[in-house]
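Q: For a teaching handout, I want to show students what a protein-ligand complex looks like in token form. Below are the inputs, and the small molecule is fe (ii) ion. Please produce the holo structure.
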Amino acid sequence: MRVNHVGEVCAQALYQAQALSTRDPALRQHFEHAAREETDHLAWTQARLRDLGARTSVLNPVWYAGAFAIGLLAGRVGDRVSLGFVVETERQVEEHLQGHLDRLPANDAASRAIVHQMKADEAGHAAAAQAAGAVPLPAPVRWAMRAAARVMTATAHRL
Ligand SMILES: [Fe+2]
Ligand SMILES: [Fe+2]
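A: Here is the structure, written as tokens, with fe (ii) ion included.
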């Protein structure tokens, strides 16, 4: 659940940076709307960590700053690439959440409900970005994103 919380910290940062980067007011609203849903996710995962007596990642400021920089970079390249980045990110998050659902104990209904709803929302974010005109990212970029996500996941398990 701490990994999920870190993911939502990054989602906030990405969407806020992308909202700042675009010059298109409609697209800015799109990013801001998604960022608000990620705020809900952040709150749910944080509350669940508290209930479980677990802490959030001590590296959250680092995750936030890194993701913000990546969001700005994606935004600089152009709106359609920025949207493509959203599609790929949300798809990878969705996969990760499915993996988490597979591993979560069947009797942890509270955690399962949160992960389930987040997974549905992330799929919605990917679909909305796709509908807004996302272009597919080149394969090497997608691989780099997966590698970065693995590092983040492994680190957030411990720190
Ligand atoms: Fe989320
Ligand atoms: Fe999302």
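A: Two things your students might notice: Residues 8, 11, 38, 41, 118, 122 surround fe (ii) ion (ligand 1) (CB under 6 Å). The chain has a mean pLDDT of 92.
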